[in-house]
Amino acid sequence: MPTPKQNCLNLQPIVPWFKNTRAALRRGAIAGILLLVYVWSARGAHLSLSELIQGLPGLADIVSRMVPPDFSILPKLLEPTVETLQISIWGTTLAILFTIPFGLAAARNISPHPVVYGVARFVLNATRSISEIIFALVFVAAVGLGPFPGVLALAFHSVGMLGKFLADSIENIDAGPVEALVATGASKWQVVVYAVVPQILPEFVTLCLYRWELNFRSATILGIVGAGGIGFELITSMRLFQYQDMTTILAVILVLVTAVDYISTFIRKKII
Amino acid sequence: MVAVAPFHLILAHLQCREVIEMIQIRGLRKEFGDGTKALRGIDLHVERGQLAVLLGPSGAGKSTLLRCINGLVKATAGEIVVDGTGVHQLRHLEDVRSKVGMIFQQFNLVKRLMVIENVLCGRLARSNIFASCLKLFPPGDIEQALFCLERVGLAEKAYHRADQLSGGQQQRVGIARALAQNPRVILADEPVASLDPRSAERVMTILRDINARDGITVIVSLHNIDLATRYGGRIVGLRDGAVVLDKPGASLTKWDVERIYEAGYSDDDEMDCEQVRYAHA
Ligand SMILES: Nc1ncnc2c1ncn2[C@@H]1O[C@H](COP(=O)(O)OP(=O)(O)OP(=O)(O)O)[C@@H](O)[C@H]1O
Ligand SMILES: [Mg+2]
Predict the structure, then answer these.
(1) Over pLDDT 70: what percentage of chain B?
(2) Are A133 and A212 found together in one domain?
(3) A98 is in which domain, residue-wise?
(4) How is B179-246 classified by DSSP, letter by letter?
(5) Cα–Cα 20 to 30 A to B75, which of A41, A245, B166, B210?
(6) Using an 8 Å Cβ cutoff, are B123 and B180 in contact?
(7) Contact status of B94 with chain A (Cβ, < 8 Å)
(8) A50 and A80 assigned to the same domain
(9) What is this structure's pTM?
(10) Residue A10 forms part of a structural domain
(11) Which of A180, A185, A201 sits opposite B125 (nearest CB)?
């Protein structure tokens, strides 16, 4: 059946809101509130078109000094680059190890006790809300400069997100197999290993790989606060106004982030 | 002085009954948190080696009754004794459960595990906890799992993933898992409700075979009168949380069926009732 030709001048909303005064008033009020929030935030954030325009020549100047990139520093970048990768690998691995007990305790359907559940959820929320840079500052102060505080920072921050997602996916599993295993007289750990783990494993592996991608990106800036990796080279070249070096470093980061994404996608496809 | 001798006699009497009775249910009540009275005082004794069929309209309490027997649902009041052990005693719960196999309408297999792993789940209660969590089993257990699969005709599917099997096959794996427990009792909650007639027939035949050859007591809830009369040595009719009928399967009359499924009971049961009359005619 051919569709009748549309008359573009006679379009109608699904719900004719302008005919309904109450709906129209509510829409008006919502629009007003949104407008107020935006104006208020613009004030607070000093949004200013004129400043942006005044800054454009400076920006153009920096960009012009960033090109061409100076690739002669590449050999010097090899070590911090590898270190960044190493930080991300151990940061993610430690995070996964910490996540398992917290994730199990924070899943309502298998948590041993409501108090344990509450504490675990609180810890996960707390570590998630503190950014890795703040953790890095704390650990640099505690264990000194270098990549190890970076590893700890990534591990602590990642636990929050990994643990929350692990707990949520455990709460969403099919209860049928769990009940069937409980009915055989299997003990709690056996039920977890045989009925819970198989159900969440694909999702959790995907999540851990995704977290590794995020952690690699974070690891590239940890050096800014002295926690190892390529970020230290980046902040140094910025401080010394060596913008051509900076471009090279950014290019290296771009290539590596892309490579890590690719590797993680590859592993994910192999496993699932 | 007078009380001493009778007490002694009562004890002997009780032990004697436990020899022939596998399941004893006395005054069982269940009220759910939302106030639903699912069971209103059930008294039921099932002898060793019996195959009993539970019939009843939707919401009668069949699933609740079966779940009380292995403690998946905690009774509000009353007493349940399975093979001489009280289900209400928490420290015996896993012990009772390991002696009672359960089969579900939705099969409840772990889909991503292999068929044989699912069957071995039936051995967990009797396995070393550390070894089993590493998925290590004694060769005897693996042999037994394969034997159980052979009994349900699925030996060649042992190393397939459970979700690659058809519904009827999955239910037979469910039976093999229950068999691997070496159970005294098998509880089956509408085991054929999701299956086509031929698979249903096959599952019921296997259950009857297990009952007859291994002497395992079987309680199975069904929605199909025809299957119930053909397979059930005994039929227990449940309605509104109470036993309304209890007689040998062969002697079930149309009138009995109407008593269980009487019309006007509730809206969505009327259709069931029509189907039941049709099936029975
Ligand atoms: N977890 C629960 N919480 C509250 N009420 C429940 C719960 N489980 C069952 N019920 C109620 O208890 C009653 C008996 O339910 P049950 O599942 O035992 O019936 P059934 O005979 O198995 O029905 P069906 O044939 O539909 O499976 C119903 O009224 C049901 O709504
Ligand atoms: Mg039911």
Answers:
(1) 86
(2) yes
(3) 71-271
(4) HHT--SEEEEESTTTTS-HHHHHHHHHHHHHHHHHH--EEEEE-S-HHHHHHH-SEEEEEETTEEEEE
(5) B210
(6) yes
(7) yes
(8) no
(9) 0.81
(10) no
(11) A185
Tens digits of residue pLDDT in B202-242: 999 999 999 999 999 999 999 989 999 999 889 999 999 99
Chain A closest CA to B87's CA: distance in Å?
12
Q: Which two tokens stand for residue B169?
A: 């096959």
Which SS3 state, helix, strand or coil, does residue A217 take?
Answer: helix
Selected residue of A178, A184, A194, A203 to mutate for chain B interface (largest B Cβ count, 10 A): A184
In single-letter form, the type of residue at position A100 comes to I
Model ipTM?
Answer: 0.85
Atom 31, ligand 1: residue with shortest CA distance: B59
For residue A189, the one-letter residue type is: W
Give the distance from residue B124's alpha carbon to the nearest chain A alpha carbon, in angstroms.
Answer: 5
Total domains present in chain A: 2
- Are A49 and A76 in a shared domain? no
Instruction: Indicate whether A87 and A52 sit together in one domain.
Output: no
The predicted pLDDT at position A4 comes to 59
Query: Do B122 and A184 make contact, defined as CB atoms within 8 angstroms?
Result: yes
Q: Which of the ligands is closest to the CA of residue B272?
A: 1
Phi, psi of B189 (to 5 degrees): -100, 100
A123 and A225 share one domain: yes
The SS3 call for residue A272 is coil
Task: Give mean pLDDT in consecutive 10-residue pieces for chain A, a chain of 272 residues.
Answer: 64 72 87 96 90 90 86 87 93 95 93 94 93 92 91 94 95 95 94 95 92 92 86 88 89 91 88 73
- What's the CATH number of domain B20-113+166-278, 2.60.120.620, 3.40.50.300, 3.40.190.10, 3.30.470.20? 3.40.50.300
Query: Alpha-carbon torsion B114, B115, B118, B119, what sign?
Result: negative
pLDDT digits (tens, 9 = 90+) for B111-157: 999 999 999 999 999 999 899 999 999 999 999 999 999 999 999 99
CB B220 within 8 A of CB B233: no
CB distance from B101 to chain A under 8 Å?
yes
| Chain B: closest CA distance from residue A194 (Å) | 8
CATH of the domain at A158: 1.10.3720.10
Output the pLDDT for position B270.
43
Pair A118, A168 in one domain: yes
Residue B97's pLDDT band, with cuts at 50, 70 and 90, is very high
Domain final residue pick, A57, A80, A107? A57
In-domain check, residue A2: no
Q: What share of chain B is helix, strand, coil (3-state, %, to 5)?
A: 45, 25, 30
Residues 6+ apart with CB under 8 A from B145: B116, B119, B120, B122, B123, B158, B176, B180
Whether chain A has a CB inside 8 Å of the CB on B229: the answer is no
CA-nearest residue to A175 within chain B is: B108
Residues A130 and A213 placed together within one structural domain of the fold? yes
Nearest to B112 among A189, A193, A199 (CB): A199
Q: Which of B97, B110, B132 sits opposite A198 (nearest CB)?
A: B110
A50 and A169, same domain (yes or no): no
Whether the per-residue pLDDT at B280 is higher than 60: the answer is: no
